[in-house]
Design goal:
Strand content: 5-15%
Number of strands: 12
Shape: elongated
Largest sheet: 6 strands, mixed
Distance between the termini: 45 Å
CATH architecture of the largest domain: Up-down Bundle
CATH topology of the largest domain: ABC transporter transmembrane region fold
CATH class of the largest domain: Mainly Alpha
Structural class: alpha/beta
CATH superfamily of the largest domain: ABC transporter type 1, transmembrane domain
Oligomer: single chain
Length: 592
């Protein structure tokens, strides 16, 4: 934890901040015309903000001071000022609307890009990254970018306002304008100071927020275990610790924001106005300064510093956005991609012949899981895979399904290297049934067809009947349109597994992969689907991992794995005759 915290306790170098900003603005390019229109609108507003005080200055010095203002002149000036103010409000609405619309579309683009990238990452990334952290980056970090981009809208308006205000001050009084300008280096120093300290705090804050999501996700998913083993206090204490750490970081952020943001700008503004008034009223002044000039100039000073104050207040969103952008790009730059396919045109799964040749595989590049694995499964045959936990059974499935890349040997399907197939071809022709299937929010039919509109309702029903899932589906209140909540917790393990079988059968795969598919099914349900399994396997090449040997006794061949190596290979009877590992396992299950 200390090493992890030390990484996040560092400030982000200025060059890296610039690089992150440049990449983030790459997402706004498709909406550049909206931004240009908004920028032009902000310039118009800045110009009107400069001209309106000048109008009042002219009225005060040329009419009020000389007592020559008639009713017509007063009404005329008021009308012009009102029109200018209304026009300013309309343009201000338009440019703010355009800015925010473009920012929201850019945010949508970031979130979609990030989600697409997550779908392309390899399984190893998800093995190593807590799901709560991933959720935090897709939701919290992307949402932060909306405020981050608004900072630049504020900066653009501030630049126009500052420039027009300074021009107005310069044309009014050169010396007074230079007095105000002298305060800018002081402000720049405080901006630099704030940026140096705040980036470290915002990195810590984002990481603590991510840890809170991790703890929350873990607690929700494991609530049954937590309550069963009375772990509520431990979980509460862990969550409280992370929550307090985030609060401490937030308090530090509040302190630095309170000290170095708007209070500094307000102080400099007050000092600048004081200095200008002292200059105008200094006894050595030989020229009388008109009231209109003082009024206009103090307005210009206010228009000069107000945008700076808004920029300083928005610096908190700037730092938050830079940190969020860095975390997002860590996912987008991650090279732990799913194994690539070469897309050879004539590579098609037609027969379903599988061949492993001297396959070696490691999850981390150091500890070998599969060691020189060799076997051949002819079209339509069933291969049973047996072995103790950690022997490499699921790893065979993982490399064949292309969830992980193997580094030595060959895997062939119908004579083609498995890397030659298009991913769509593999996914369409290889059907996988896992030990613990996942049910999506929706209804039973959508969980069988998995939102594939090409699969008709009739095909869904036939698939359910084929695996005998129709027995319990037909008893549901709305049958195939009965609601399924996330995870399918209203169904038993056996019922979820039957839906999973139907989900695989409805796609009519050429190769069937069963990864301990009957492990969570009770004996009665298992006997009910045995005939269904036989029908599923008919005409298909099948790889079946099983702890229950009764489910693979009729396999054409069985391999026994131990520490990643095939130690026994043969039919059920041949392996029993060997009186080795398989024989001992069979005798153990028979005596249970």
């Amino acid at each position: 934890m200390d090493e992890h915290q030390s990484v996040w306790s560092k400030s982000i170098p200025f060059k890296e901040q610039l690089k992150i900003m440049k990449r983030l603005f790459g997402f706004t390019k498709p909406f550049k015309y909206q931004f240009l229109a908004a920028i032009f609108g902000s310039f118009i507003v800045s110009a009107l903000t400069m001209l309106l005080p000048r109008l009042l200055q002219y009225f005060m010095d040329n009419f009020l001071a000389k007592q020559s203002a008639t009713v017509q002149i007063v009404l005329g000036i008021a009308l012009i000022y009102a029109i200018g103010t209304i026009l300013k409000a309309i343009v201000q609405f338009i440019y703010i609307y355009l800015f925010n619309l473009a920012f929201e579309r850019s945010l949508e683009r970031v979130r979609q890009t990030l989600f697409n990238k997550l779908n392309k990452l390899g399984m190893r990334y998800f093995d190593q990254t807590p799901s709560g952290s991933i959720v935090s980056r897709v939701t919290n970090d992307t949402s932060t970018l909306a405020d981050f981009w608004n900072v630049f809208a504020t900066i653009i308006f501030a630049v126009f306002s500052i420039v027009t205000a300074f021009i107005a001050m310069w044309t009014t009084n050169h010396t007074a304008a230079l007095i105000v300008l002298a305060f800018i280096p002081i402000l720049i120093f405080f901006i630099w100071l704030y940026s140096s300290y705040s980036s470290r705090l915002y990195r810590q804050f984002r990481e603590k927020l991510s840890l809170i999501n991790v703890k929350l996700n873990e607690s929700i998913e494991g609530i049954t275990v937590i309550q069963q083993f009375r772990q509520e206090k431990r979980v509460d204490d862990e969550f409280e610790k992370v929550n307090e750490e985030q609060l401490a970081t937030r308090n530090a952020m509040i302190k630095i924001n309170s000290l170095l943001l708007s209070p500094i700008t307000s102080l400099l503004y007050s000092l600048a106005v004081t200095a200008v008034l002292i200059y105008f009223g200094f006894p050595t002044q030989h020229i009388f300064v008109q009231a209109g000039v003082i009024y206009a100039f103090t307005n210009y000073v206010q228009n000069f510093f107000n945008p700076l104050s808004e920029v300083m207040d928005s610096m908190t969103f700037f730092q938050d956005g830079v940190v969020a952008g860095m975390r997002i790009f860590r996912i987008l730059d991650n090279e732990e991609l799913a194994p690539k396919q070469l897309d050879v045109p004539d590579a098609k799964v037609t027969e379903g012949r599988i061949e492993f040749k001297h396959v070696n595989f490691s999850y981390d590049g150091e500890h070998q899981i599969l060691k020189d694995v060799n076997f051949t499964v002819e079209p339509g045959e069933t291969l049973g895979i047996v072995g103790h936990t950690g022997s490499g059974k699921s790893s065979i499935i993982n490399v064949m399904m292309r969830f992980y890349e193997y580094y030595e040997g060959e895997i062939l399907i119908d004579g083609h290297n498995i890397r030659d197939f298009k991913k769509d071809e593999l996914r369409a022709k290889l059907g996988l049934v896992l030990q613990d299937p996942f049910m999506f929010y929706g209804d039973v039919a959508s969980n069988i067809r998995l939102y594939n509109d090409k699969i008709s309702d009739e095909e869904v029903v036939r698939a359910a009947q084929f695996v005998q899932a129709d027995h319990f589906i037909e008893r549901l209140p709305r049958k195939y349109h009965s609601k399924v909540i996330e995870g399918g917790s209203q169904f038993s393990s056996g019922q979820r597994q039957l839906i999973s079988f139907a989900r695989t059968v409805v796609t009519d795969p050429k190769i069937l992969v069963l990864d301990e598919a009957t492990a969570n099914i009770d004996t009665e349900t298992e006997s009910m689907i045995q005939e269904g399994l036989k029908k599923i396997r008919h005409g298909r090449t099948t790889l079946a991992i099983a702890h229950r040997l009764s489910t693979i006794m009729d396999s054409n061949q069985i391999i026994v794995l131990d520490q990643g190596q095939i130690v026994e290979h043969g039919t059920h009877q041949e392996l029993l005759d060997l009186k080795g590992y398989y024989y001992n396992l069979y005798q153990l299950q028979q005596n249970m």
